[in-house]
Amino acid sequence: MRISIRVKPASRKPGIELAADGVYVVRVKEPPIDGKANKAVLRTVAEALGVAPSAVQLVAGEAAKTKRLEIPDFADWQKRLSAVN
Questions:
Q1: Cβ proximity of 82 and 12 under 8 Å
Q2: pTM, to two decimals
Q3: Alpha-carbon distance 76 to 9, whole Å?
Q4: How far is 34 from 78, CA to CA, in rounded Å?
Q5: Cβ(74)–Cβ(48) under 8 Å?
Q6: Is 27 exposed, middle or buried (0-12, 13-18, 19+ CB in 10 A)?
Q7: Phi and psi angles of residue 19, each rounded to the nearest 5 degrees, phi first
Q8: Torsion of CA 62, 56, 15, 81, to 10 degrees
Q9: pLDDT confidence band for 77 (50 / 70 / 90)
Q10: 67: nearest Cα among 3, 1, 16
Q11: How far apart are CA 9 and CA 62, in angstroms?
């Protein structure tokens, strides 16, 4: 299943939240340098879903703040992501 997220790199308070426009915002401490923020995003989303980081893949948006991820197909994936904060 593919989802769109918005990334806020170099954030003081990491986490995942649902924005008013319905897009998940993933905040990570890592800066957007040399793919560090992308790796942190994949780890954060995988941890929230309770899966291995290798199960979450970046499909599009490597250099953009809006990214598309491939995640395992869960019936309750939205509930799992929302439970992070």
A1: no
A2: 0.87
A3: 26
A4: 29
A5: no
A6: buried
A7: -75, 165
A8: 130
A9: confident
A10: 3
A11: 13
